[in-house]
Amino acid sequence: LTEGKIVTLVEGVNTIKVKCPFGNDKRPTIDYLKIEGLPSPTIASKFRNPPHFVAVIGEENSYTEQNMIDAQYETDALLEHLVYHDNVAPFLTTRIMQRFGVSNPSPRYVKTCVEAFKTGFYTSGGTSFGDSSYGSLEALSACIVLDREATDEALYEDPAFGSLREPIIMVMNLLRSMEYSNTLPTIGLDGPPLAEFYNVRLYKMNEKIGQSPHDFPSVFSFFLPEYVPEAGPALSAQLAAPEATILDMPKIIGMQNGMISLIKYGLSDCNDGYGRYPGYKWCSDDGLYYRSIGHLDRVPAGTTIAELVSEVSLLLTAGRLSQDNRDTIEAACSAETDHDAQFRCIQQLIVFSTEFHSTNKMEKSGEDRAVDTTTVVTSTEPYKGLVYLYISGGLDSFHLLAPHTCAPINVYERFRAIRGKNSLSEGIGMKLDEMLVIDGNNPDQPCSTFGIHPNLPILHALYNDGDAAFIANAGLMAEPVDVNNYRQMTPVQLFAHNDMNRNTQKEDIFDEFVGTGVQGRIADVLNGKDMPVNVFSISGTQPVNVGEPGGSAPFILSSSGLSDFNKSPSISDMNTVIRSLNNATRKDSGFFAETFANKLSEAITSHEQLKAELDAVDVSTVFPDSGIADQLKVVAQLMKTRESRGVVRDMFYVEHGGYDTHSNMQINLVNKFTDLNAALEAFVAEVKQQGLWDSVTLVQFSEFARTLDPNTGDGSDHAWGANHFHIGGGLNGGKVRGLYPDDFVQSPSNPIALSRGRMVPTYSWDAMWKGTAEWFGIDDGSEMDKVLPMHSNFPGKIYNAAELYV
Question: Which of 20, 87, 95, 155 is the most exposed place for a label (fewest CB within 10 A)?
Fold first, then answer.
């Protein structure tokens, strides 16, 4: 027990912090708290229930009171604080409004519905909604759909009002409006009887359209709520269009291919459909749906083609289809003589219209839409390719590179001890006899040799050839820090996947170049120097590839490359008709309609060009069957198209996931490293075959490393400082740069060790990026300041191209 402490409070909110002496193995307990001296009993004051620290693990002879009810009180207080926080109502209100089709609600609209949420009460037209309790979703929903901003038809004329539509909502719209039926083909099926009823089975929709029920890509759902498209009037007006977050080329093509397939063939795998191969028959656009487990079964009420267009327009666009697009569709589908074929043709064309993909009014200018994707090469620079390998989930990189022979300090024994080795367990650290040993070739390191994981022999071979190197204990930092100041000096959510992922890819913690990533900024600088560069992601939209507004947008491909767009079209010149439906719009046309029309037109044009170029090349090396190998194979194919694309620089993003090893870390990394090793072996062999090995660098990053101290599930948890590698024929490799820790235990004398073996980085990600960017064509000075805004904060701990490359 300690003596009582007197704390002087000031007017307003006060926070009392309790700090224990370093090394104290007890937990503080506040048993009695009294507030005295209020000047008047009428002054409003309140005190949240006093903090009570509960020891998680009992300690022998401990005086710590472990009372479950205290933990429950504290938890209840925290939940109450969060639920009633001032930001909750406006946050939820705005997000829900966006899902109801208003991407940029007015402050008045938000304020009105926030009040409904807080009071639990809303009245409209004499009808009351809600139960007068805080957080009433009934009152909030009623306000959102009944407020004048949701019901006034005049707002339809406002080009800034409305939204893009969610992909999955449009798929549901098509299924329901066209009356999807789980009816199997009635003729031509041999064999035993099949089931009479099937549930709707949509396959890998997240890959095809960017959305799938119960398959969120992260805790932040599918969209960035504040996302502003990188081109068009929405950019100029700085209007949010969350759904545009996933409007990249593969998903646009996947979305439209799937809808065409559903209309023509039913739910199946035909031409990249939304279903899977059912095990029978073929793809045929004849209304018999031979290869499906269900199909759109609506019988149209109309008889003339004009009536059919009006009917489908009403069901799929709420009647918003412009007269211009009506005329275009009627003319195109009149070529079909069969009534049912006309109906299917109309459905296919309407799902390509801007009115289907947005809630805006669309007004065409009468001009064709200009889509220019050509590149004129004026640079004489030799080709270089940069591959950004992101290992997502937080790589346990001390299981990638471990200490081996170390003197005078036996770092290896310290390493094994922190990794859990004791008289009862071997822990999770690599053993000496299983490591692939390399010379550190760096007198500053505490070890003369290190060990690479045995399932990564490609790194071992490349390192010994001088084509691979490591930087030890590096990480995301704004400036050099230690255990005493890292929280104040590193304004990010350390140890959080989402924030560390985003900021690792941005390399701009203070947002000097808002919304951009390091490869996007490299592309901006190089394009300004007449060095044509393409940026590709083979794994979705990524922050690292985003440049400044108005710059060239990154190409987004899937790991399987590019499929055909609209294979076997139902009518002649169908793609020409699709383009005409999305021709140039007037300045007062809907901003979100224009965003989709522009995105679709760019996607089709880019797809056609890349498809033709990729189909014209093949790789000489056999790549293994894995996700990361598929991505690297596409990278190798793209490199072979560099001349036809007219570029002298390429940047690629690939991602290998599944490294969040909170349990069974060793077993999981054996499997992950085996896949990664095979993929890298094939990629290196192919790049060498193309004669580009000296012109290519692959850099590896992850959001953070993991605790050296294992958890109870033989796993490791989120940490910070990491070991990472780069490979390439031009590297001055065969060295472990950075500074490998020689002490992993938290103590007053250790400036870089946090609890459980979480290491504070001694080198920043900029250490590798600086020399890599110089090699790639970025000059020191203003260009480097833009690409790496924080690099000057690390004097003496940055590697130049002269150090990293030969």
Answer: 87
Residue 184 is predicted with a pLDDT of: 72
Say which amino acid occupies 29: T
How many other CB atoms sit within 10 Å of the CB of residue 323?
A: 7
Look at residue 349 in the predicted model and tell me its pLDDT.
98
Instruction: Give tens-digit pLDDT for 482-499.
Output: 999 999 999 999 999 999
Highest mean pLDDT among 201-205, 361-365, 503-507: 503-507
Asked if omega into 225 is within 30° of 0 (cis), the reply is: no
Residues 41, 38: Cα–Cα separation, whole Å: 7
* Residue 85 CA: distances (Å) to CA of 72, 108, 699: 20, 20, 42
Instruction: Report whether 754 contacts 732 (CB < 8 A).
Output: no
Tell me the three state secondary structure of residue 234. Answer: helix
CA distance 76 to 131: 23
Strands ordered across the beta sheet of 401-406: 401-406, 447-452, 436-439
Rounded Cα distance between 327 and 420, Å, is 73
> Cα Rg for the chain, rounded, in angstroms?
30
Residues 582, 585, 591, 595, Cα dihedral to 10°: 30
The per-residue DSSP string of 745-773 comes to S--TT-SSEEGGGEEPPSEETHHHHHHHH
Which residue, among 724, 669, 722, has the nearest Cα to 434 in the 3D structure? Answer: 669
Rounded average pLDDT over 12-31: 62
> Which one-letter DSSP state was computed for residue 358?
B
pLDDT in tens, 513-550: 987 999 999 999 999 998 999 999 998 878 899 887 55
